[in-house]
Amino acid sequence: MRAKKSLGQNFLRDPNVIERIVGALDLTKDDVVIEIGPGQGALTETLLEKAGRVVAIEFDRDLISPLRVQFHSTDNFELVNADALSIDLSLFFTEGKKLKLVANLPYNISTPILQRLIDQRHLFETIVLMFQREVVERITATPGKKERGFLSVLVEDAFETEHLFDVEPQAFVPIPKVWSGVVRLEPKSSAVSDPTSFRRLLSSSFAQKRKTIYNNLKCVFDNASAILLASDIDPTRRAETLTLDEWRKLAGTVSDMQTTPANSQKT
Fold first, then answer.
1. Does pTM surpass 0.70?
2. What pLDDT, on the 0 to 100 scale, is given for residue 8?
């Protein structure tokens, strides 16, 4: 069960960190927990003691047989060999009882997995994730901070977010070169009516962070100036300074004004 660098694998081994992560889920024997990337099963073992059922989703085929051997006598354990970026998590949902989810995620899938969890957040009561600390800083960045970007606003719109604690490199095998961080996400309703358009708006606005929001949006909307004026947003501001309420208002204005992409107006 060696770690694969190509998959960004670093197996958590520190029992104190494991206890803190599991504790953040506030588990009972009525809970069903999805664990993405069980690895060598260190976190899984503690989850099985606390939860009613644990569904472990592992992408690496080489880890499947060892995990099955390790937990072969555990009745409340289910192992699924699948890609967490494509599997339908609603398969494990029971009507009337929301799921909990925990994962130690490599840097290269942090953004796509978060976007997927945002789309399926109605399935969950609590989500506890561990990322590289750089990703956690981006997720939790407040308006005005240089780390604030597309992902910060997207997550803020979908979750109540709490940075719980940091994890030193020595807690893993092999030892990574960076610190990690653990966050807890509590799903909430979004005031955005069109999530796809909202993501496009954010992507365009943060396209070049050194530019003002107007200079980014004018590349997409011919009436960018009017959109910002109607949203009461100073066009000289940068995207990272906007609050969530301002983003929601801007998204509503874009929708109300039925804006047309600049390129299509010139055909």
1. yes
2. 57
